[in-house]
Amino acid sequence: MDLAFVPLIAGIVGILFAVYLAMFVLRQDKGTAKMQEISGAIQEGAVAFLNREYKVVAIFSVIIALILSFAINWNSGVGFIVGAIFSGAAGYIGMSVTTRANTRVASIASEGTPKALSLAFRSGAVTGMCVAGLSLLGLGIFYVWFRDPTLMVGFGFGACLMSLFARIGGGIYTKAADVGADLVGKIEKGIPEDDPRNPAVIADQVGDNVGDCAGMGADLFETYAVTAIAAMLLGWFLYDQNVSYIIYPLMLGAVAILATIIGAFFVRIKEGQGITSGLYKGVYATAIVAAICFFFITKYIVNDMGLFYCSLIGLAIAPLLFMITEYYTATRFSPVKNIAKASQSGPAINIITGLANSLVAPAFPALVICAAIIGSFAVAGGAAFFADTSNIAAFNSGLYGMGITVMGMISLTGMIIALDSYGPATDNAGGIAEMAGLDPKTRKVTDALDAVGNTTKAVTKAFAIGSAALAALTLFAAYIQEVKIPLSAFNLGDPRIIVGLLIGGLIPFVFSSSCMMAVGKAGDSIIEEVRRQFREIKGIMEGTGRPEYGKCVSIVTGAALKGMIFPALLAVLSPLLVGFLLGPLALGGLLMGSIITGLFLALQMTTGGAAWDNAKKYIEDGNLGGKGSPAHAAAVVGDTVGDPCKDTAGPAINPLIKVMNTLAILFAAAIVAGSLL
What is the DSSP string of 96-163? Predict the structure, then answer.
């Protein structure tokens, strides 16, 4: 059998497992009529937003596909369209199941935590398996068709652009709604977070799904796709188009699908056991099974144990990032407790302490990534490279080894997204339990699941950012090979390199500013609308008047779609302008500058925002005065500041740096031929 068909078949198996999980979830009890009504409103809002977002993306996609087809080749244009469709479909399908799972999780929560956890995880695993399965399916189809990874870059770019829109649009939506609901509902009116009297409550529930489910799905879909393509490109360039080194990254992904399916059955707990440990059992089981499979795949295809060790380094990165991020964001550790304690002195001290915590949080993840890079070169390039860095053969081996390290890390994508998409299901379940007036026992279970969901969303974002940075480095290495400029040419004595580094380092900041401003403007509109409804609709606070939920959903949808245009244009136009005006060396500097600042800024924003969020929840659990206390009011302000950091600007940096890198590879030949400098 032709090995090229194995990844394609593995992708189909992953999709079929997702179908099995979805059928299991949808067979569960939907709860009372009131619960179904609330869940239906969330589904309707989420689908309406994605439909409008995808229409905007479709316009951009058609224009870009035509440009690629005429400026590059038709293969890139077709690949771009398919990549965008597959990426959007992965998030759409997963979100559709998650928005239907929420009421079912709330219903089964009355039977205890173990059953609720199992159902919530399985709903999230639908997204995870769709992402991994569709990624492999698309990559497998194009490799079988083209047999040339240089013609597959368009597929990665399509996935990147869809991810960029999903992250920006979904992030603006979810945080604008959250800000409006929190500041008016909690601070001004003193009502609970998911109180049905709050006009923005449905928009807030919708946001959890379009941001964390559809957004993360599209994000890691494109990371998976571009990582595999970049590793295949390195095999193509560095090993004289040796088929074994080209197909090897896809084979790692194929066996990881099997490992993920096995690992999913390990996610279970008994009553009284820790929810987090139950979820992490699935991650560890997946990693162990994957490691065993990687050994045999490596022996059979390339017979290079150095590359097997590189794949193990990749598998080890995920749990290390998990532990570090959990320390900075979980309520049981000192960073979050210190932010909560600072809230007793008011919102200013809360924000100062939270900012200090966020600024130091990227340190250890960055060191882990540094160790992974050095380790990859050490085991793949060997001592020969460190003894003589001009040894081209050793350098090439190390470069390819780094690509395999990233592929080993990203092979856990299916399980990681399952952990992330578990969060919106439990968050919505808690909201439905509150709004439908379920008994306190049920709400206690959903609150416990939701609290863990906040931490899993934080650690999965760290995984996404770490993998994005490493994937971008691999793409940068592929770009160097594509433009055929030796790495030694990228030195700080060339002013073009300096200018490129500075512009590249600046872009994530301008990009993040635009995203944050969009959240602020949209949030302001929601705040005014919520205040208007409380003021003009009689009986809302007494529970006799019905808020106009749809009005808030409509306002935040329009604001999100408008706010995502400039950041997307910045990501697409900046590398092209720098490349054609200043040349391939300056573009290389831009790519490296954006990777470095993007990594640190994304980690700082996502970790800091999660810590602010959990500091608020720590107080709401009855500590330091509990709900309604001055400390709680200060913590809500801190959480509101952190929300657009962790769910809008920070995560959107991932696709930003990969869009620029894939564009650089696509237009490398044209830039070399047509640049002004």
Answer: HHHHHHHHHHHHHGGG-HHHHHHHHHHHHHHHHHHHHHHHHHHHHHHHHHH--GGGSHHHHHHHHHHH
Angstrom distance (rounded) from CA 247 to CA 4: 7
pLDDT digits (tens, 9 = 90+) for 338-367: 999 999 999 999 999 999 999 999 999 999
Structural domain total, the chain: 1
- 388, with CB counted inside 10 A (0-12, 13-18, 19+), is exposed
What are the residues whose beta carbons fall under 8 Å from the beta carbon of 625, sequence distance 6 or more? 344, 619, 631, 632
pTM of the model: 0.91
User: What residue type is assigned to position 538 of the chain?
Assistant: K
Average pLDDT over every residue of 530-555: 85
The torsion angles phi and psi of 194, rounded to 5 degrees, stand at -105, 30
Distance CA 219, CA 85 (A): 13
Helix, strand or coil for residue 22?
helix
In single-letter form, the type of residue at position 277 comes to S
The answer to whether 581 and 676 have CB atoms below 8 angstroms apart is yes
Degrees, nearest 5: CA angle 580-584-590: 90
Domain extent at residue 38: 5-674
Q: Are 171 and 215 in contact (CB under 8 A)?
A: yes
Please report the sign of the dihedral spanned by the C-alpha atoms of residue 349, residue 351, residue 352, residue 356: positive
Among all chains, which residue has been given the structure tokens 């060191």?
A: 367
Q: Round to whole Å and give the CA distance between 39 and 42.
A: 5
Q: Residue 277 — very low, low, confident or very high, per pLDDT cuts 50/70/90?
A: confident
- Contact predicate 560/210, CB 8 Å: no
